[in-house]
Amino acid sequence: MPKWKNVFVTGGAGYIGSHCIVELLEAGYDVIAVDNFANSVNDNGEAISLKKVEQITGKPVAFYQCDLLDKPKLEEVFSKHEIDCVIHFAAIKAVGESMQFPFMYYKNNLIGTINLLEVMQAHGCQQLVFSSSCTVYGNPEHLPITETHPTGNITNVYGRTKFFIEEMLKDVSAADKSWNIISLRYFNPVGAHPSGDIGEDPTKPFTNLMPYIAQVAIGNKPYLTIFGGDYETTDGTGIRDYIHVMDLASGHVAALKALQNEHLRLKVYNLGTGEGCSVLQLIKKFEEVTKTKVPYKIEDRRIGDIVSMYANANLAKEELGWQAKCTVEEMCKDFWRWKIKNPNGYKTDAVKQVANGTTHTSTSVTQNGVHK
Ligand SMILES: NC(=O)c1ccc[n+]([C@@H]2O[C@H](COP(=O)([O-])OP(=O)(O)OC[C@H]3O[C@@H](n4cnc5c(N)ncnc54)[C@H](O)[C@@H]3O)[C@@H](O)[C@H]2O)c1
After folding, report:
1. What's the pTM value of the predicted model, to 2 decimals?
2. Which atom of ligand 1 is nearest to the CA of 47?
3. Which residue's alpha carbon is at the smallest distance from atom 11 of ligand 1?
4. Which pLDDT belongs to residue 267?
5. Would you call 59 helix, strand, or coil by DSSP?
6. Which helix (H) or strand (E) holds 163?
7. What parts of the chain have a pLDDT lower than 70?
């Protein structure tokens, strides 16, 4: 049984949050989750993803529709529970959108985090796991990337919000020794829970590679566009470190355990497999596993795209006792199971439009790799 009981999860209705909550409930934690449905399906104030999580685990989740920018509401929810620690997933993350609407990104991600940290501090709860990203490394100076690689040389606003939050966490933990924080730098999360009952279902336009491959495989898009086929990689296409979302989820449970065992002040860990996989390799594996065809076209490189990015994940192995276990094949299989069982995600597109005042259609098919 964990020493801490109540975990407060921000952005819990989202992709990684919902998968992580499955792992938390199964590890014996109780979960209090908040989300404002900026990028997840809203069913009259209920999170469908979390209803599914309850079905998978047979355990309840206390959910509140709450925007981190609404500090009084956040304060009210926090006061209702004895919170032991917080996992902070809530953020908006679309790279292209962040370049068009920088205020929106800085406000949501930075002010949202400041509100959260202030409410936590006021309640004497200073244990935090933060969702960071390999995007903080910018263009890699060496591969595989270790946690000591310089950060901050980033070309997009979304990535800078993650970098600025990491810098802020350094400052708050230097100012107040009570903070006990782990920042997890995710590489490229893909896949879905093996039940096929929860998965990735964003309400904003997305550019992640695997959902696009699946859209093409299922016949919703004619082909995938790959930007850059002449990079200095094994097959000329960009390389990323894809990690199964359930491995990522277990990384959070390991981080919570580490925070309970020792007062760490502030630590940073990469969560990746340590293996690079090219766009073409991922397409090939996906076709093999799902017995589908994914036609693609190769176009010119895009300015600013990173060629190769993969983790050195040894530190998490040594200090958190965590290691990614799933293969790319399992990532494809599980993603496809979710897609086949739920071709329209958590709801039909029509209902989704009404619920969120948004559509699920994407404007551009873009892919070299993902800048998150
Ligand atoms: N998916 C990736 O490729 C990836 C990679 C690296 C880091 N991350 C980070 O991991 C975290 C989770 O990502 P995800 O893929 O699950 O994204 P997601 O969009 O599926 O989940 C984030 C959730 O946060 C919610 N949210 C956003 N702003 C909010 C606010 N102000 N108040 C309350 N809720 C809010 C959204 O509605 C959404 O449900 C994010 O911080 C993201 O930046 C994701």
Report:
1. 0.94
2. 39
3. 89
4. 98
5. coil
6. helix 157-175
7. 1, 348-372
